[in-house]
Amino acid sequence: MNWTEFLAMGGYAKFVWPSFGLTLIVLILNIRAARRLHRTAREQALRRLGTGRTQP
Amino acid sequence: MSWTWFHKLASPPHFYRIAGRLTPWFGWPAFLLIVIGLYGGLVLAPPDYQQGEGFRILYVHAPSAWMSMFIYSTLAISAGIGLIWRIKLAHAVAAAAAPVGAWFAFLALATGSIWGKPMWGTWWVWDARLTSELILLFLYLGCIALRASIDERDRADRACAVLALVGVVNLPIIHYSVYWWNTLHQGSTITKIGKPSITFDMLWPLLTMIVGFTLYFGAILMTRLRAEVIRRERDATWLREELAR
Fold first, then answer.
1. What count of other Cβ atoms lies within 10 Å of the Cβ of residue B152?
2. Contact list, A33 vs chain B (CB under 8 Å)
3. What is the C-alpha separation between B208 and B214, in angstroms, rounded?
């Protein structure tokens, strides 16, 4: 496979790559957001319950 | 038919554990399918006879648009179940799904806009397909904002459910908009009556991406739901035992 040709996307590079890039960024950010949401909920609940490591 | 399995699944402690166990079973197949779909769409699929290599945006645009509608259906069905049978977990599903759906509606609009520039000569037109998809994004944002603005959880659940159900009318409008109105947007690729208007070399990466995105949503939904269940069950004794483990 010719890399230069592949990256050029037949002249559509500046439309194809931003589309794919944006999609992948949003997919990754959503994974991180979901994990952070779960972690924060857990930590808050633990603090409230007064059990576990996060106890002050 | 016995419904015990359903009530057991819908019980928060049971669901919390199941959701945790299910997440990797959604996540890893999703990852694999998206990688295969990207390779198929960017490398293996032949260029389009009209749009050349530019058509490859299809492989992120169509799955995003599909997800924006699939997630809205999920949201509306759970909201309906929550309203009718008063199942708490159903409202939790609606709450957890809305932000993810909003992101996919945004992606469908953004990638569509980027695709529109070289093919139609414009980033945006106020035609039926684009406008109804924009309304879908606003419906998601409306659900999120409405939930955030009501403190009492049961009232927030019910208000959001009503909004979600009213918004369902937009789904067939989005789907049929390309047939009912004159539009720049091309017609359906896969669900056209009769045969799909796409060759198999181009079709399989698209289907792979769609299934991959759907499983990805499954993994994200499970994780967001666990957070939602914790927040809703924060005074329950099972949570104390579960989190202490």
1. 9
2. 99
3. 10
For residue B48, what are the β-bridge partners?
A: B52
Q: Residue B40 has which token pair? A: 């198929």
Contact A10 B61 (CB under 8 A): no
CB contact under 8 A, B107 and A34: no
Give the span between the Cα atoms of B103 and B96, in whole angstroms: 13
Residues forming beta bridges with residue B52, ordered by sequence position: B48
Angle, CA B201 vertex, CA B199 and CA B206 arms, to 5°? 90
Residues B92-131 as b or e (16 or more Cβ within 10 Å = b)? bbbbbbbbbbbbbbbbbbbbbebbbebbeeeeeeeebbbb
pTM (predicted TM-score): 0.92
Give the distance from residue B220's alpha carbon to the nearest chain A alpha carbon, in angstroms.
6
Of A10, A15, A45, Cβ closest to residue B234: A45
Q: From CA B76, how far away is CA B160, in angstroms rounded?
A: 10
| Nearest-neighbour CA in chain B from A42: distance (Å) | 7
- Would you state the structure tokens that stand for residue B99, as one six-digit string? 């932000």
d(CA B87, CA B90): 6
What is the C-alpha separation between A50 and B172, in angstroms, rounded? Answer: 49
| B contact residues 114-143, partner A, Cβ 8 Å cutoff | 114-115, 117-118
A21 shares contact with chain B (CB less than 8 Å): no
Report the alpha-carbon distance of residue B217 to residue B23 in Å, rounded: 10
**Domain boundaries defined on chain B:** 20-41+55-186+200-233
Kindly report, residue by residue over B56-103, the tens digit of the pLDDT: 999 999 999 999 999 999 999 999 999 999 888 999 999 999 999 999
